[in-house]
Amino acid sequence: MFPQYDVIVVGAGHAGCEAAVAAANLGCKVLLATMNMQTIAQMSCNPAMGGVAKGQIVREVDALCGYSGIVTDHTMVQFRMLNKSKGSAMWSPRAQSDRMQFAAKWRSMLEAHPNIDFWQEMVNGLLVKDGRVYGVRTGMGLEIPGRSVVLTNGTFLNGIIHIGEKQFGGGRAGESAARGITEQLVSLGFEAGRMKTGTPPRLDGRSLDFSRMEVQPGDEPAGKFSYTDTPPLTNQMPCHITYTNQQVHDVLRTGFEKSPMFAGRIQGLGPRYCPSIEDKIDRFSEKTEHQLFVEPEGRDTCEIYLNGFSSSLPEDVQYKALRLIPGLENVRMFRPGYAIEYDYFPPTQLQTTLETNLVKNLFFAGQINGTTGYEEAACQGLMAGLNAALAVKEQEPLVLKRSEAYIGVLIDDLVNKGTQEPYRMFTSRAEYRILLRQDNADLRLTPIAHRLGMQGAAQRMERVRAKTQAAAEIEEFFRNASVGPDEVNGYLNAVQSAPVGQKVKLYNILLRPQVTIGPLAEALLELRSFLAPFEQEFVELAEINIKYEGYIRKEEEMVQKMSRLEDVHLHADFDYRSLSALSAEARDKLSRHKPRTIGQAGRISGVTPADVSVLLIHLGR
What is Dmax (Cα atoms) for the chain? Predict the structure, then answer.
């Protein structure tokens, strides 16, 4: 009934969709197995993509020929570039998406790919023999052969939904939990754990008084995520901001005794940086209000997502508290918020390729690895799908360095440090964030996609070359062109920057913190004429290269120093237990993790600089 697939992807959330696309774009025959074809790429939580550090990840996924950025551009209703008041390393794109259009676009793009087949049924087991996976088993007992398997089960593995004192099995509201896979993996020697996440109530927008809230408009003109020629966003929808108050907190406290979190019915740890409203009130009891974001679910629905009000309290308590929030006095709920508890597998059981240590050609991606967020899931799916395909092709795997991508930081953190709570990406996690900006993801990663021969990468490389050349031409112009006091002092006075007394290079003018290239060009006709043919994206790259040249050079020097340790490779069969000079913890951790390089070994929790020195001495370094 089934052919032998090169890659079988289990789960069609954000990780699964990107895994399927990545393997298919490398020419592999892929089966995408999902419990429900109607929920492919479902936005289970907030209807948004991107955000601080997450936006950089979406652009990196796009640069590697993933689809998340393209789908977002086609279906967003609002776009904002966050942190524009800070340095360019902190700029992070974020889009409010149309939930239904987002899922529909993803499905249509997947179905249009000739290398992707679909099967709708629960997968409840793996076919494993001699330490290697060779397919999956479905709930109906069907065996589907595959040369590699990527598990992207999200919150469905033995999922339990909590609302007050009520609890019932489910991987998402209205959908069944997945059973069987955890039990089999544990029997094979894997360690499993429990985590929890939550979601806020969905509201009827017709019952809200938006005039009592702050308006949060999108950027004009709107930006985008994909480096491809996606359509510009027009007719943006506003979001709104409102706040809780002491009355709201008092009502919510009346339900704490029935809270599954406080009563101990939930054992898994929740996301530290996205706590439930009851957790916020408990942990930050001195605060009298908390900010809430009122976000539309799409253009053709009145459904509203109340970002910041995630809750598992009883539904009647949620409802009473909501009606005390400004603008929500007459609110109607579509459904209450809930918490969900699910199985995950500590990611220290993986290689940096996302292949498991215990079973060959079996890969994990997404929340099964202890992460939270669409973007974190998508990039793991992409990397797992790529490496599953490369394994089948018997080619070298792709492992991104911490200096190459936020994706590299995320996977390196997971594999070497593990996580006991849902992992979320932040710019602060990346030590080379001046190099890992959202504007240059294509320059960093598209050449890698092109080298691998990924479908669509050749056309993308043409744009990368054009962008690189244009930025170089603009930088050269600034280094050579001069401007006199009578031309530029009026502008400098307007931005409260010291006037010049003689001709100076435009390069030196642009280095001033108050000066930006757009207003400067408006003041200087020659500059404005020169820049006219160039795309705004190319001009922005040149400006960043000029303003941050010194910082960029320092980080590149730091990368070169650290790369020496990354270039010292360790064999998978290295006997760490025979090195008595290593600490007992280091021997244990290194034996379990099996790091690929000295650099990776040094980032494993519990491995000290002294242990790294022992390894270097042993290797004759």
Answer: 83
Cross-strand pairs, 240: 215, 294
Cβ neighbours for 273, distance < 8 A, ≥ 6 positions apart = 424, 426
Question: In angstroms, rounded to a whole number, what is the distance separating the alpha carbons of residues 229 and 525?
Answer: 30
Strand partners, 8: 31, 149
Give the residue among 109, 287, 327 at the shortest CA–CA distance from 203.
327
> If residue 194 lies in a helix (H) or strand (E), which one and from where to where?
strand 193-199
Name the burial class of residue 206, with classes exposed (0-12), middle (13-18) and buried (19+) by CB atoms within 10 angstroms of its CB. exposed
Place of tokens 């290269």: 545
User: What are the phi and psi torsion angles at 610 (to 5°)?
Assistant: -65, -40
Supply the pTM of this predicted model: 0.92
Task: Give pLDDT, residue 262.
Answer: 66
For residue 156, count CB atoms less than 10 angstroms from its CB and return exposed for 0-12, middle for 13-18, buried for 19 or more. buried
Residue 208 tokens, joined = 């809200």
What's residue 582's pLDDT? 86
Q: Tell me whether strands 160-163 and 338-344 are parallel, antiparallel or unpaired.
A: antiparallel
Burial class of residue 141, CB neighbours in 10 A (0-12, 13-18, 19+): exposed
What is the C-alpha R_g of the chain?
Answer: 26
Distance CA 134, CA 123 (A): 14
What span, in angstroms and rounded, lies between the C-alpha atoms of 621 and 619? Answer: 6
Amino acid sitting at position 441: A
pLDDT, residue 137, reads 97
Q: For 328, list phi and psi in degrees, rounded to 5.
A: -115, 20
Place of tokens 């793991």: 380
Rounded Cα distance between 497 and 513, Å, is 9
Beta strands in 439-594 (DSSP E): 482-483, 504-505
Weakly modelled stretches of the chain, pLDDT under 70: 261-271, 273, 621
Q: Which domains does the chain have, with CATH numbers?
A: 7-197+342-452 (3.50.50.60), 202-338 (2.40.30.260), 461-552 (1.10.10.1800), 567-618 (1.10.150.570)
- What are the DSSP calls for 339-353, one per residue? EEEEEE--GGGB-TT
Q: How large is the angle between the packed helices 406-417 and 374-392, nearest 10 degrees?
A: 80
CA 429, 432, 434, 436 torsion-angle sign? negative
